[in-house]
Amino acid sequence: MTRFSLFSALPLAAAAFWTGSAAGSEELSFSQVERGRYLATASDCIGCHTDFENGAEPYAGGRGLETPFGVIYSPNLTFDDETGLGRWTRDDFYRAMNEGIDREGNHLYPAFPYPYFTLMPRQDTDAIYDYLSTLEPVHKEKPENELPFPFNLRQAILGWNTLFFEEREFVSDPEMSDEWNRGRYLVDGPAHCGACHTGKNFAGADVDEEYLRGGVLENWLAPNIRGGENGGLDDWSQAEIVQFLRTGRNDHTAALQRMGEVVVLSTQKLANSDLEAIADYLKTLDDDPREIQPSQDSAVMEAGEAIFFDSCAACHAVDGTGAPGLFAPLDGSNKVNSEDPTTVIRVILEGTQAVATDAHPGPLAMPAYDWKLDDGQIADVATYIRNAWTNSAPAVDAGTVEDLREYLSED
Amino acid sequence: MVQKKPAVDAVLVGFGWTGAIMAQQLTEAGLNVVAIERGGWRDTPTHFPPTIAQDELRYYWRHEMFQETARETLTFRNNPAQRALPMRRWGSFLPGEGVGGSGVHWNGITYRFLPSDFEARTHNEQRYGPLPQDMTVQDYGVTYDELEPHFDTFEKICGISGRAGNLGGTIQEGGNPFEGWRSDEYPNPPLEMTFAQDRFEESARAMGLHPFPAPAANMSRAYTNPLGLSLAPCTYCGFCEKYGCGNYSKSSPQTTIIPVLMRKSNFTLRTNCEVLHVDKHPDGTRATGVTYVDAQGDVFEQPADMVILCAYQLQNTRLMMLSDIGEQYDPVTGQGVVGKNYCYQVMSSVQVFYDDAFTNGFVGAGALSMVADDYNGDNFDHSGLGFIGGGYISCSTTNARPIESRPVPEGTPEWGSAWKKAMRESFLKTTSVGVHGASMAHRLNYLDLDPTYTDAWGRPLMRMTYDFTANDRRMTDFITPIAADIARGMGGREIKINERTGSYDSMPYQTTHNTGGTIMGQSPADSVVNRYLQSWDLHNLFVMGAGAFPQNAGYNPTGTVAALAYWSADAIVNQYLRDPGPMVQA
Amino acid sequence: MVRISRRAFIRQILMAGTVVAGFPAAALGRQYRGGEGMPWEAGQTHTPYYGTEPGTFFTSAERACVDAITARLIPSDEDGPGAREAGVVEFIDRQMAGFFGRGQRWYMSGPWPEGLPTQGYQSQFTPAQLYREAIAALDAWCETNRGGSFAALEEDAQDEILTGIESGDVTFDGVSAETFFSLVKENAIEGFFCDPIYGGNRDMVGWSYVGFPGARYDYRDFVHHDGARIDLPPVALMGRPEWSAAQ
């Protein structure tokens, strides 16, 4: 009876357990499947491989991923024979994760983060494979990618790989603690943090010098998450990093759109020891001191202050301290102070919603100001909050606001 | 053609405070719940954020938060000899509409009624002898002691800011010494008070009264409630009552319950759908669901094992009538119960005008108030006074929204240069002491269906027959002068007394504290629902809200409405579901 | 069981149609499934509907009449600005052209017997119709009894007539002068103190006159004013001049 109650508490796993098609007669141990589920969660496979917008089945793919080169649709990871991984072997799967090459030998687009997954050892990719094999197979064709020439040519990736990709497994640094190494493995491997938080070159590949210093994608800024001296998370304690990844909120900020998704689907479900390891690692990444900006145009700052005092202080407080845990303090914020103002402008234009998590079920939201403030006013208030109090970041010009406004109105 | 929806465990009619409370409690118990709301979806960042919320014309004067009378109103007369005419536009009260109901635009004053309020007949007759024949006051059938844990639950859900006056029977300095015993302190300290409250406190104390800060659903600090939902500190913006709160600092169904509900797969909400009637089983012992119409005019049947009316008091009463459940009250014979004991409240005030001091009324919050409860309920000896009940006396600073709040001294003309100047001089230098008086039930104050006027769907409007009673008049005539005495002691240049005289006028705003019509009690002969808010007629029909009050107390009703909802939900989950049937034998 | 008549249904649809015209958000029935979280969309705000361009309802004669009445109710004088500086007529004109003037949200079905004072507005006219009828009646009354339209009379004469309407001494046939007067009074106050987005309270003159700081949302730093004056410039929904950097 005990066994049954254990399984009934895990209906999905229990149901799929013995019927997994590709696993065939091979019996999968419970712990192996659970390990795979955990790694798949840490890798946030479900995030890209689920078409949430259309309420589609998890892991069945079909989500359009917006890249600078066009829209790429994620494939089906369930073990359907025709449209999914049904005919894939563990070797096929390892090769995809390790080299970015599919079962037919085609190169996969690096929107699939194999440059990070390559760090994962065989036993980890096998576990993920085994977990995926227990999912109910879903027959779902992948829509054609929307890529212009020459990006529609998969051969192009060969050149890309030659230039930017290195097949390698994770190597521990013996000088550092096990926790630190575990954190680094998670950050650089399964959790592929750099996919968003590391700056990219013209070809969309990571720039080493920009490692976790922040990046822009889909017109969002993924902020600098280096936690050492001068890093974006310099003033976050290790516990605050864990709290953010666990609950989607801490006294500094709340997880918004894309990161919100990551917290909900991935990090809130990870073991505390792993979140602590990630935080431990990030806290060792120092950064160069930020460039102190020359003082901004006083007319701009005065207009920005007037707008801020009248329109923003009811939540973010006159002195920019916000309401910790509720409304983001703007003073000292890594998003506000980042060189790239995309997120600041975007949040002012269209508002934003703090993600609802198990720990914080209430999705607090900021309203849109696009109808209320013109491009110049948004630029002025953005410049003000980026240079008021202890903040210092380049001024924002109206043209940048105009461009983003235009981009958002195209959706 | 009526389309049939899949059956559910419970259908809720209306999705304000009681709808949200019921939905939360019943889904927690594992039930599959559908809520049907006739207004639209509303939430802070889209419908009343601080980019648009502080708009006096739109939200109050153009009634954006309220039901449209065009769709449904009620007819009104002062007594049965008059012809009732429709309230073509709202005036003396403002029923809300949309998700969150009036819980979006309320002040947030969150009292508990006094223990003696729940036993109004027994208590007063024991102390003062028999009540007059026409005063149809009765006991609730539930006691304060039984409701105490549920008051406590709601106060914690809301994060009420206040100071206890009676902790487990021990009187606390600075709180309300007259309140019923509390099992716990308020979850948040009181709001900060302004100049006007300080003057009131001094004056009231000098008169030997016991002022205390009003229990407020405006947050005195950041707060996370037991459901994990966070509320922000109130910013004293002065756009609270009649408005939605833009920065999550006033408790509402949206800020305290709904986000949790929206994460549950056993909950569904349908908006812009209006329930037309409760469907009854032919055997007459239970409801089978509700019939509703959506905005496109399509009619649906929603079968359910339980029907819970969670609309406003006026709508719940009317739905009972339109569904032909229970016997309609007849004021001539005194027979029947549906529509009986409609009550209101008796409000009066005293304005204080200062010469030099600025009261700065725009710095305010919906429940920012100091209160003296010395003349409420039976907190004072009524011997020889000729009335029962009372009211609290308070000095609130909620706003200086100028279309609404621009008092002028006695003798000022109503327009022209002299008026304009007086208005300007007083605008920032005035405050008011209010009396929030109870309303006792009377044989001739009641609700029924109007014989002439119909709503947008061609169904009869409800008809209200109401006037202040002799008890009300004696009560307000006794307490208003006490309020004036406090006002005189507040250091102003002059005062102006706004007595409540004459017949009830349906136009000037007074309060949206309408009660009765689906009253609770101890037998089907005197009530619509039993002590668990369960219909005496259909055992799977429950009726929430202030309609259950057999008479109205001298307090804002939301705390008691919510406590009754939690009490009822508790009875449903722990008694009714185990053995569906009448929980009290008639 | 009550059935919905086809007429009632069509009327409802028509009403819904005009609601859409007045407010951008269409009131359509929707189902929200629990488990999907709180509905929210980026860039969505229920922005205020502030009416059409000026000069859309009143004729020039009507405009002159409303201007004259409201200028007596809220005069421009040495103490400060009045209805004229605030643009009260423009405000009322826009209101009359919109849902308010159409009485769209009010219960406007008959029959229409004479009401008691405690029963409130019982005119069969919508606000816009009431203005139209009553202005015509007022001007006709003035022509007959004072030899000119209301707007053409001296201020003292105007005051005398308005006082007469208020006291019930001046009445019109077919339309209640008293109901009209109380509606104009109400609308004039609205136009003097509403947000400038609606056309009245131009440049926030009404708010500045009485010292109301307008559409603010945070007075935490001012709670303990202890009876002292708080000096804050008024701000409207669309801002104040200081929101734009000097060019």
Could you name the key traits of this structure?
heterotrimer, A: 411 residues, mainly alpha, two-stranded antiparallel sheet, 18 helices, 6 strands, disordered N terminus, C: 247 residues, 8 helices
* Main β sheet profile of chain A: 2 strands, antiparallel
**N-end to C-end Cα span of chain A:** 53 Å
Number of strands of chain A: 6
Q: What class do helices, strands and sheet pairing of chain C give?
A: mainly alpha
Low-confidence segments of chain A, ≥5 residues, pLDDT <50?
Answer: 1-25
Radius of gyration of chain A: 22 Å
The residue ranges of chain C in which pLDDT falls below 50 over 5 or more consecutive positions are: 1-26
**Beta-strand percentage range of chain C:** under 5%
Q: What is the topology, as strand order, of the major beta sheet of chain A?
A: 1-2
Q: What's the quaternary structure here?
A: heterotrimer
Structure annotation, total helices of chain A: 18
The pair of chains with the biggest contact is:
B-C, 109 and 95 residues
Averaging pLDDT over every residue of chain A, what do you get? 89
Q: What is the terminal-to-terminal distance of chain C?
A: 68 Å
The helix/strand class of chain A is mainly alpha
Helix tally of chain C?
A: 8
Fraction in beta strands of chain A: under 5%
Task: Please explain how this structure is put together.
Chain A is built from 18 helices and six strands. With 411 residues, chain A is mostly helical. Chain A folds into three domains: 17-164; 178-282, Cytochrome Bc1 Complex, Chain D, domain 2, CATH 1.10.760; 298-410, Cytochrome Bc1 Complex, Chain D, domain 2, CATH 1.10.760.10. In chain A, helix 3 (30-42) crosses helix 7 (122-133), helix 5 (90-99) crosses helix 7 (122-133) and helix 11 crosses helix 13. Chain B is α/β, with parallel strands linked by helices. Chain B is built from twelve helices and 22 strands. The longest helix of chain B is centred in the last third of the chain and has 19 residues, at 470-488. Chain C has eight helices and one strand, in the order αβααααααα. In chain C, helix 4 (88-97) packs across helix 7, helix 5 crosses helix 7 (177-193) and helix 6 packs across helix 7 (177-193). Chain C is globular. The chains are: A mainly alpha (411), B alpha/beta (586), C mainly alpha (247). The interface between B and C is large, with 109 and 95 residues.
